[in-house]
Every structure is written in C-alpha cells, then in structure tokens.
Amino acid sequence: MPRSPSTSAQQAREALATRLAQIMSDAGLKGVHLARAAGWHESKTSRIVTGTTLPSPTDIRLWCEICGAADQAEDLIAQALAAESMYVQWRQRERAGLVSIQRSYVPLYTRTQLFRQYSSTLVPGFLQTRDYAEALLTSIATFRGLRTDTKAAAAARVERSRIIREGSRRGVFLIEEGVLRNRMGDAATMEAQLGYLIAAAGLPSLSIGIVPFTADRSGTWIVETFTMYDNTSAHVELLGAEITVTAPTELRAYADMFDAVLHKALFGEQARARITEALEALTG
C-alpha cells in the first residue's frame, strides 16, 4: 500500500528538521539561544525543528553560521528545496495563471517516453477535448476565485497533450468507469468528449483501459489520480496541491498499484463498449 504522498512530503521536511536539530545540539545550543542569536522569535526555531515550518535558504545559512557548521549549509539548502518541490500548493502555481501551468509541463512531457496515468475522477488531461478542458478549468477558476482566461488555458492543455502522440511515445490510461458518467460541462461537451475517447482508444500509441463498476477490487482500491513519467517521477493530484514523487520506493508503490489496477481494466472493444454505454445513457 503506497503511503500518502503528503506523508512522504512531510517526512522529507522532518528529515531536514532532524539534521538542523542535531547541528544545534552538536553546537551545545538550545532553541532559545539560537533564536536570540538569529534575532527571531523562539517559536520559529521550534517550528523548524518540529518540521512544521520549512526554513528558507537564508534561515539555513544563518542557522549553520550560528552553530559553527557553515560548511553544511548548501547541502541542507538543497535538501530543503527538494522537500519543498515535493509538495506544491495549487495556489502557488496559479499565481502565474492557468495558461502558464499548462505550458510548464511541456519540458517534462518532451523528455518522457512512457506515460502511465490512473484517473479516478476526471478524463485524463492528455485525452480531454478543448470544451471539456475549458469546462473543467472554468470550474477550478470559479472554485478558487481566479480571474483567468480559461479558453486560452484549455487550448494550451490540448496543445501540450499532442506531444504524447509524437515519435515513439506511449501512453497507458486507466480510467474508473464512474469518470464516464461524471458530467463536466453541458451534454454536448460530454457527448463530444466520450466520442473522442472512443476514437482515441483506437490509436496505436495509446492504451485506454476502463475499470468497470463491477471489477473485483481485491488488492486494489480507488485512490487519488496519479501520473507516472517513465520510471523517474510521479505526480499525484490532491485538492490543494500537487505532489511530486521521486523516491524509488514510492515510485515502485505507485507502479505496483498501476499494474494491479491494469489487470482489472477492460481494453479494446470491451473498453469502447463501456464508453458507448455512457454515451448512450447521456444522449438517451
């Protein structure tokens, strides 16, 4: 069972906090002494050593200087940046706009050859039509109170997704059957989206599996949506943040879950039949 990705991010923070606490202890200092020397409130030192607050590079350099461990500062800063990159709140990314977020994935997509995505809630972004993407991004913008050009963001999402069909790239998508019945946008938008899924299921570079309602979930369960890029990283989508997983043991856990669900999914004509059923229920 994969650990919660947010737990993994917190563990990275705690590992950094442990090192900083040890450096302080080796210097014979207590939190109150370090805080006084640094010129900040004692509670800040407490939050850092408990992993509640991630220190900035300036904080780390000052901490190490006070403790006579300036030579360790840069390694600790690198560790802090790695911990921070594991857990990025959507609000942080949205400051640059939704169009910027869509385009930010292009370098990752370009260097990836095998894409594996499990989706429990929505049609995978790689397979979304422009209207479906616009309806989704409009919902996100409304929920978060953003003022943004969702039409341009949807166009950017569709444009970046074309990369997966270039060269020798492969995409394997596992979609819970409920996703086919979750309406995003109006009936015409969903009709076009389901029709596109049927067509995409016939492309040689893509494998689209539908996990049926009736699947025996022994050994698996419905988890958060995640995408694996080759065997180098995975992105896990939460309501408030995106988690980046790179630790080998974590990646293996997600790969194992993907493989387990893979054996529950329907492909080919069976998958297209399930999508067609959802389409007929929508139009009937």
TrEMBL record:
InterPro entries: Cro/C1-type_HTH, DUF5753, Lambda_DNA-bd_dom_sf. Residues 109-277 form the DUF5753 domain. It comes from the Bacteria. This is Helix-turn-helix transcriptional regulator. It comes from Yinghuangia aomiensis.
